[in-house]
Design brief:
The chain is mostly helical. About 70% of the residues lie in helices and about 0% in strands.
C-alpha cells in the first residue's frame, strides 16, 4: 500500500505542520506590507495559544478558545501598533519586548491558574475534531486514491482547511482590493499615499489588526489541534520561521505559502528521521535531526535575502509632512 512508505507520512505531516506557519506568515505579510516590522509574531502566537487552551479547557469548547485567542492577539497587535505607529517607537525593540514579556507572563499565569509546571491540563474532548470528507469509506481500499482523498486531502481539522483557503483570499486582498492597494501604497511610499488622501496611520492599524487575527489562529492551532495543551514557549521559533518564509516569498502570498510548505516538509522529515539507522552510519543523534528546520532557515536566508525586495518604507516611522 502507498501509505506504508515514509513519503506518504511525510506529505500528510507537511499538510498538518504548514498551517502554523501559514497563519503567522500571512499575519506578518499584512503588517510588513504596511511598513511595520512584525517581530512579535512569536509573542502573539504564544499568547493566543495560552488563552485558547485555557478557555477551551474551562469551557470544554474549542471555538470559544479560538475566539478568546483572537481577542488577546488583537490586544497585543493594537499595543504593538500604538508603540510602533502612534508613538513611532523602535519596531524591532517593541517586537522583541512583546516576545519576552509574553514568554514569561504566559508561564506565570499558567502556573498560577493550573499549577502544573507552567502548562495547562490536557484538553481532551475540547480539541478540534478531524473532518471526514464524504465518500472517504467508499474509496478507502483503493490504492493511492484512498490515501490521497482520505488522508492527504481529508481527515484534517477546520483550521487546516482555513489556512489553505486563506492563501488565495490574501492574494486577492493584497493585489485586487481597495484596501490592498492602500496597504501597498503606505508600505512603499507613505508620504505619497498621504498626499493622495490615504490615512497612513489608520491603514497601518488595520493591517496590524489583520495580523493579530491571523496570528491568533496559529497559536490556537498549536494548542487546540497539534498538542492538546499549552506548554511554555511551545511556539518554538515558528514566528521567526514564518518571517523567513516571508523573505523567501518576497512578501508575496503565494510564494510565502510555498516557503511555509517547505519548512513544514523539513519539520515532517525531521520527525521521520528520528530513530532511523543509516547504512554505515547508524542512528543519527536526535539533536542533529532537530537542527534540520533551522539549518534550512539559515540556508534560505543566505540564499534569498539578497534577492528579496522588502517594502521600501518598512521599519520607518511615518511623520506627517507639515
Amino acid at each position: 500500500m502507498f501509505e506504508d512508505f515514509h513519503l506518504a507520512s511525510i506529505l500528510v505531516s507537511t499538510i498538518r505542520n504548514a498551517p502554523v506557519l501559514i497563519f503567522a506568515a500571512m499575519a506578518g505579510l499584512f503588517a510588513e506590507r504596511s511598513g511595520v516590522i512584525d517581530l512579535a509574531l512569536e509573542g502573539k502566537m504564544l499568547a493566543s495559544a495560552f488563552v485558547s487552551a485555557s478557555v477551551a479547557y474551562v469551557t470544554q469548547n474549542p471555538w470559544l478558545g479560538i475566539a478568546a485567542g483572537i481577542g488577546i492577539s488583537l490586544v497585543i497587535a493594537l499595543l504593538q501598533g500604538y508603540v510602533s505607529i502612534t508613538q513611532r517607537g523602535n519596531q524591532l525593540v517593541a517586537g522583541i519586548a512583546i516576545n519576552i514579556a509574553v514568554s514569561g507572563l504566559s508561564f506565570v499565569l499558567a502556573q498560577f491558574f493550573f499549577g502544573q509546571g507552567g502548562r495547562t491540563p490536557d484538553l481532551g474532548q475540547a480539541r478540534l475534531f478531524d473532518i471526514i470528507l464524504p465518500g472517504t469509506d467508499a474509496v478507502a481500499n483503493i490504492p493511492f486514491l484512498g490515501w490521497f482523498y482520505g488522508k492527504l486531502i481529508g481527515g484534517h481539522t477546520a483550521l487546516v482547511y482555513l489556512a489553505f483557503a486563506l492563501i488565495p483570499v490574501v492574494h486577492w486582498t493584497i493585489y485586487h482590493s481597495r484596501f490592498g492597494l492602500r496597504l501597498r501604497a503606505v508600505g512603499e511610499n507613505p508620504h505619497a499615499a498621504d498626499a493622495a488622501g490615504i490615512h497612513v496611520e489608520r491603514t497601518r492599524f488595520l493591517a496590524m489588526m489583520c495580523a493579530g487575527v491571523l496570528c491568533s489562529f496559529s497559536g490556537a492551532y498549536l494548542a487546540i489541534v497539534q498538542s492538546g495543551f499549552f506548554l511554555r514557549d511551545m511556539s518554538a521559533g515558528n514566528g521567526f520561521l514564518a518571517l523567513t518564509a516571508l523573505v523567501f516569498g518576497n512578501w508575496r502570498p503565494l510564494y510565502t505559502a510555498m516557503g511555509c510548505l517547505m519548512f513544514g516538509f523539513f519539520a515532517a522529515l525531521q520527525i521521520q528521521m528520528e530513530g532511523v539507522e543509516l547504512p554505515g552510519i547508524g542512528k543519527i543523534p536526535g539533536s542533529l535531526i532537530q537542527m534540520i528546520p533551522y539549518v534550512v532557515t539559515v540556508i534560505v536566508l543566505a540564499g534569498f535575502m539578497a534577492k528579496s525586495v522588502a517594502p521600501k518604507a518598512i521599519g520607518i516611522p511615518f511623520v506627517k509632512s507639515r
